[in-house]
Amino acid sequence: MNNNLKAAIIDYGMGNLMSVLRSWQFIGAKARLISKPSELEKDDLILIFPGQGAISDTMKLLKSTGFDSLIRDWIASGRPFFGICLGLQALFEFSEEGGGVAGLGIFKGSVRKLKLPPQFKVPHMGWNNVEFICNKSLLKGISPKDQFYFVHSYYLDCAQPEIIFGSTEYGFQKFTSAISCGSLLATQFHPEKSQQKGLLLCKNFLDTAAAKL
């Protein structure tokens, strides 16, 4: 267990925070919530950005708290970062949600509304496959048949193919469902809601980050 490794989870007033907190504590991280950047500690290994709700509200809260600058600086430094759902979408340039919202602009791409035939429900909610690009350390113990849990009405149209780590198809719409870049991993699906395999993905990320210390 990695119970000496510290993980800071951004608490900006939205998101499935307690489930995320419990999942990282369960895999052995010394995880806690932080509500402002000044609460970050020097020995924090991983910064986790969970997201659930409207991106317009999310961006306003990130800017008002200063978490927008913290996230940019943290990722630019190459330190381990894990984004979930809106914590993936907000990393990009623009989202169609709410009439159009600028994201953090760390990566190139846009977030677009799922437009599907009527037999497919929006939001996309439930279990689905992820077609991962091979990364032996992150995917240890995870097979192509394993499914992960999604809840979203908007999808990532990523303009940087080199960072795409996983893709998913729903209603004839194929979209980027995970990105990986250096020590960063971000997913459209919710690992904390994806039972054993979701926890395993988080643990693999934690172990990979710890191995670089």
- Assign a percent range to the helix content: 10-25%
Helix-and-strand structural type: alpha/beta
The CATH homologous superfamily is named Class I glutamine amidotransferase (GATase) domain
- Coarse morphology: globular
Distance between the termini: 16 Å
Tell me what you see in this structure.
With 213 residues, the protein is of the alpha/beta class. The chain has one domain (6-211): Rossmann fold, CATH 3.40.50. Helix content is 24%, strand content 33%. It is built from 5 helices and 14 strands. It has helices at residues 17-26, 55-65, 67-76, 86-89, 195-211; strands spanning 6-10, 30-34, 44-51, 81-85, 94-95, 101-102, 109-113, 124-129, 131-132, 147-152, 154-158, 164-170, 173-181, 184-187. The strands form 3 sheets. Strands 2-1-3-4-14-13-12-9 form an 8-stranded mixed β-sheet, sandwiched between helices. Strands 6-5-7-11 form a 4-stranded mixed β-sheet, with helices on one face. A two-stranded antiparallel ribbon has the order 8-10. A hairpin with a 5-residue loop joins strand 5 and strand 6 (101-102). The longest helix has 17 residues, at 195-211. The mean pLDDT is 94.
In short:
24% of the residues lie in helices and 33% in strands. The protein has five helices and 14 strands. An eight-stranded mixed beta sheet has the order 2-1-3-4-14-13-12-9, with helices on both faces. It has a four-stranded mixed beta sheet with strand order 6-5-7-11, with helices on one face. Strands 8-10 form a two-stranded antiparallel ribbon.
